[in-house]
Amino acid sequence: MRILIVEDEPRLARLLAQTLGEEGHQVVVAHDGREGYEVALSAQFDVIVLDVMLPTMDGIAIARKLRASRMQAPLLMLTARDAPTDVVKGLDAGADDYLTKPFSIEVFLARIRAVSRRGSIPRGVVLQIADLRLDTACREVMRAGQIINLTPREYMLLELLMRHAGRAVSRDAILESVWGFGSDVTANTVEVFMRLLRLKVDTREPKLIHTVRGFGYLMKATP
Ligand code: CA
Known about the structure:
With 223 residues, this protein is of the alpha/beta class. The chain contains eight helices and twelve strands. The site of calcium ion has 5 residues, from loops.
């Protein structure tokens, strides 16, 4: 794959580029925001790794501008541990996933594989289960024609489950993809959020969110 890394910390940029190179990828590195934005527009990339805190233009602004210009490459955002709001802003700006610093190289490579796979899903896709409809382009959720207002976290949770409709998603996978690696959130928090989500989404029959005892959750229309 052709991968662009926009990261201003030289050591981290070098480590990521080297690792991806060893995996057989072709890597381009940009060290500041404006340069990264221009490089991203100038060529076709399969994945773009975008740091949030960057000189000249931050990663969130870059993501927003790239999406506004209909650039479709999957974006993996790198966020600082002490800036959790960056995650929501980043996803709202069009990032496909995020990784909280510091992270392990194995996790980084796994995320690159995951976002590149997801990249093959057309953007602006509408996910539907029974009468529940989630439009990923405008982040709108409707059930039986009624709009359901979700918080960003609830939305992420629902989108994750709907993307895996018919398959059980483990609590760990939910924690990882909705709250991020190394967050101090526990499985109990996942349960609390699932309860809130059910109160908004599953107010009518058929119930769509199912608990898989001792494992996680599953979305499907039939019991
Ligand atoms: Ca930085």
